[in-house]
Amino acid sequence: MPILFAFSQPYPAEIVMKILIAEDNIDDRTILHCNLVNHGCDTVIDAGDGEEALALAKSYEPDLIISDALMPRMDGFELLRAVKIDPALKSIPFIFYSAVYTGFKEEELALSLGAEAFIVKPKEPEELWDALTDILKRLEAENNRPPVGELNKEDEEFIRSYGEIVTTKLEEKVKELEDALARRKEAEDALRDQFSAINTIFDSVSAIVFVADLDEDRLLFLNRHGRQLFGESWNGKKCADVMHEEQHRAMNICSGDAPEGDGASQHPVSWEFICSQTGRWYQCIERVIPWRDGRAVRLVIAFDISERKEVDRVKDEMISAVSHEMRTPLTAMLGFTELLLDNEVPPAEQREYLQIIHRETEKLNELIDNFLSLQRLQTRKDRTGGFLPVDIGMLLEEAAFQYGVSHGHRITVACPPDLPAVHGDRRDLLEMLDNLVSNAVKFSPVGGKVHLEAGLEGDHIAIRVRDDGIGIPADMLEKIFERLYQVDGSDRRRFSGTGLGLALVREVVNAHGGRVWAESVVGKGSTFHVVLPLQVKSLGPQES
Questions:
Q1: What are the distances in angstroms from CA 450 to CA 93, 319, 447, 467?
Q2: Averaged pLDDT for residues 50-59
Q3: CATH: 1.10.287.130, 3.40.1210.10, 3.40.50.2300, 3.30.70.380. Which one for 310-379?
Q4: Which of 89, 95, 396, 405 is the most exposed place for a label (fewest CB within 10 A)?
């Protein structure tokens, strides 16, 4: 249900006073609400997402709508569009107050859809109020302007425009690749004159090297690595027939440069493609060179970059998610600190605000710890170096004591006294248990029991962490250990996080040669299973 706050504090007559806030983050919404009320707004209506805001706008017909951009169910852009096509609502001024994730494109799209302004958060309360005041005074002065026309764009056009925002980041990545290619040009020039005499070297390279004619794209040379992938029946065939790229050419594009001077192109071309035969990504360097019979041909060197593509994808997703999650507690900490510094706040409210600041600080600290630990585990070359015997029973007791004291849950430990030690890294294993217990406590919001159990099963130690919490849907049990994955649902949205905790658990278990999985019944709790071998074989950096 919406909450209305009415105040009799005097305010400037020319400033709009009935304001609807659409913001899914409760702390951001509280700060903005308090800011508006403290500056004399007599009616402030709160909504947690776009759908709720649209319904409230139809019921209360506010004088102004202030909205976040990214929200569940209906985001700010969809809300703006719905307002502007409603005859009863389209004249209501609409202002975005949101973080910018992809640059000026978000503001550009907002204004094109009829928004009055796009204010980038976070801002200090006084700075935000001054910005709102300027906008509202401008609107008051322009009250005779023609109304904003109805939007006639089709849904596909709207989605396309919104998609352009996302492509901004991809364009930046392309620019980075172009810069990298420029730095490699000198090395490529040095190799150009040696290709005719280094077939043996090409055969020792872990990359696909081939030569094809310019007219029909038929293969004239394929190195040993390429023959191992595509077979020995290649000579004289078209690239597409050998490499099964489902396009006209085997490698997507060709330089197209005409031979110059001695028959060599002056400008190498670089591009990427995915080979449907191997399912792998390759970065290709191509240039036109003179062949042994004097004709111009294409020389292509294709480096397997599948791991790099995956690392880049995960890195970008992680940076985006971590940045967003860091901004959220920082916004709350800054906002409530500003309120305490600039306003006379009763002791009860002071304590409430300080508790919020403390909670958000703990959340930020946990986020940073998990992120650094995950990076450390992923970049460690010797994954078993320094492993020592570790008493799992003592680790269970330590994890139980920490969370039992500070979070009010009843945590029990069941572990036989003669349980053999596990060969591993004590710090990593304790961090794994801390994350599992923290997860059980977090998703048991009304308290209850958390059971920590361990026992010997053959030549493995089996660990179980059971809770009586809200549970996990069956179709999500395989996904919860993925980096950045978060169970999404209306009853779970209040549990924030970046999805790094369980990813860290899996990384630790993999580093110790074990297995981890979860069993759960919605509404009845979850059980997380970890099985660790007593002796761990040597694991390389890519093994799991």
A1: 51, 32, 9, 5
A2: 92
A3: 1.10.287.130
A4: 405
By the 8 A CB rule, do 73 and 51 touch? yes
pLDDT digit string (tens) for 168-225? 544 555 566 577 677 767 655 655 555 555 666 676 667 888 888 888 888 888 888 7
How far is Cα 426 from Cα 348, in angstroms, rounded to an integer? 43
**What angle (nearest 5°) sits at the alpha carbon of residue 85, between those of residues 82 and 88?**
100
Residue 19 CB contacts under 8 Å (≥ 6 apart), including other chains: 36, 41, 43, 44, 45, 62, 63, 64, 65, 66
Give the whole-angstrom CA distance, residue 402 versus residue 483.
Answer: 25
pLDDT on residue 164: 59
Residues contacting 405, CB < 8 A, separation 6+: none
> Where does the pLDDT of residue 502 fall: very low under 50, low under 70, confident under 90, or very high at 90 and above?
confident
Which of the four pLDDT bands, split at 50, 70 and 90, describes residue 530?
A: very high
Instruction: Tell me the CATH number of domain 4-152, given options 3.90.850.10, 1.10.1670.10, 3.30.200.20, 3.40.50.2300.
Output: 3.40.50.2300
C-alpha 51/C-alpha 61 separation (Å) is 15
pLDDT at 377 over 80: no
**Domain 193-304: what homologous superfamily?**
PAS domain (3.30.450.20)
Dig out the tokens for 367 from the structure: 């986020």
Q: What is the pLDDT of residue 358?
A: 84
Cβ-contact 79, 22 below 8 angstroms: yes
Q: Which residues, other chains included, contact 373 with Cβ-Cβ below 8 Å and sequence gap of 6+?
A: 428, 431, 504
5: pLDDT strictly greater than 50: no
CATH of domain 381-544: 3.30.565.10
Question: With 0-12 CB in 10 A as exposed, 13-18 as middle and 19+ as buried, what is 372?
Answer: exposed
Residue spans per domain, the chain: 4-152, 193-304, 310-379, 381-544
* Residues whose CB falls within 8 Å of the CB of residue 311, separated by 6 or more in sequence, listed in order: none
Please tell me the distance from the alpha carbon of residue 117 to that of residue 135, in angstroms, as a whole number. Answer: 8
For the segment 352-380, the average pLDDT, to the nearest whole number, is: 74
| Structure letter (DSSP) for residue 428 | H
> What does the pLDDT read at residue 408?
63
